[in-house]
Specification:
The protein is α/β, with parallel strands linked by helices. It has one domain: NAD(P)-binding Rossmann-like Domain (Rossmann fold, 3-Layer(aba) Sandwich). Helix content is 47%, strand content 15%. Strands 3-2-1-4-5-6-7 form a seven-stranded parallel β-sheet, sandwiched between helices. It is globular and about 45 Å long. The mean pLDDT is 97. It binds NADPH dihydro-nicotinamide-adenine-dinucleotide phosphate (NDP).
Length: 256
């Protein structure tokens, strides 16, 4: 398969504000950069202030507008505050990307309550809280794009990831429901379900596992964060206004 040509999808997001959680590295960073490249002001959210600053600097270096918002997405009350502050600063919020996520993998008999709770709070509850706060603003403006980061684990399951798969399947059910609630208001809510993408999350699996994984991927390689970002860009665009409640799987054919 020929190498993908990335960073080439263009859509005009000038005048729009996007909030991206988990923008300090990996897929979220690539998404923030893509949205910034297309003219959106990007509110970059994560815990690591130094890494967030790198994302913001990279967006500004290409002439884009971005700010860092340090926040732990498991901190419920802080999320409402943060969305209010972002809206006050930029005067609106048109695009929300719920991307922050973690894994705490282990087989079910060994899974501790804390491992379950941490994954559900970080991945699923944060998606609920950010979406509830952001859609209040979008409803008033009668325009919005919400993109939630699911996973193929949420579609087909994955041994050792009962907590993670439950959080991602939860995100898919949440996405479809909220999409129906807002479909009449010019707001779309979609999910993206990546397969294996080269980031810190998959690096943690180790080289051996990654080699095994590649054998299960018809494309014979892991995906790149930018390949997810390009799809998010499309779903965030004005052009995608008739697509809602969908899950776009991006996995090199793994679940085909
Ligand atoms: P990384 O581990 O590279 O990055 C995770 C991001 O989430 C970081 O920016 C991290 O920021 C942020 N984050 C984690 N916990 C919190 C928290 N409590 N509060 C705020 N931010 C938090 O992961 P990926 O880029 O690989 O994953 C991004 C998303 O894509 C996740 O939802 C993941 O489940 C999903 N995904 C990834 C796949 C892959 O193969 N990589 C496959 C399928 C889905 P910080 O540490 O600075 O807080």
């Amino acid at each position: 398969m020929a190498e993908p040509v990335l960073g080439t999808i263009q859509t005009d997001l000038s005048g729009q504000t996007a909030l991206v959680t988990g923008a300090s590295r990996g897929i979220g960073r690539a998404i923030a950069l893509s949205l910034g490249r297309c003219g959106a002001r990007v509110a970059c959210v994560a815990r690591d202030a130094a890494k967030l600053a790198e994302t913001v600097d990279a967006i500004r270096a290409t002439g884009g507008e971005a700010d860092a918002w340090t926040c732990d997405v498991t901190d419920g009350p802080k999320i409402n505050e943060l969305v209010d502050q972002v809206v006050a600063k930029y005067g609106g919020l048109q695009i929300l990307v719920n991307n922050a996520g973690i894994t705490r993998d282990t087989l079910l008999p060994r899974m501790e309550d804390a491992q379950w709770d941490e994954v559900i709070l970080t991945n699923l509850r944060s998606t609920f809280l950010f979406t509830r706060a952001a859609t209040l603003v979008m409803m008033r403006a009668r325009y919005g794009r919400v993109i939630n980061m699911a996973s193929v684990s949420g579609l087909v399951g994955n041994p050792g990831q009962a907590n993670y798969a439950a959080s991602k399947a939860g995100i898919i059910g949440f996405t479809k429901t909220v999409a129906r609630e807002f479909a009449g208001r010019n707001m779309t809510v979609n999910a993206v379900a990546p397969g294996f993408i080269t980031t810190d999350m998959t690096a943690a699996l180790g080289e051996l596992v990654n080699e095994e994984v590649k054998k299960r991927i018809p494309a014979k390689r892991l995906g790149r964060p930018e390949e997810i970002a390009e799809a998010v860009l499309f779903l965030a665009s004005r052009a995608a206004g008739y697509i809602t409640g969908q899950v776009l799987t991006i996995d090199g054919g793994m679940t085909a």
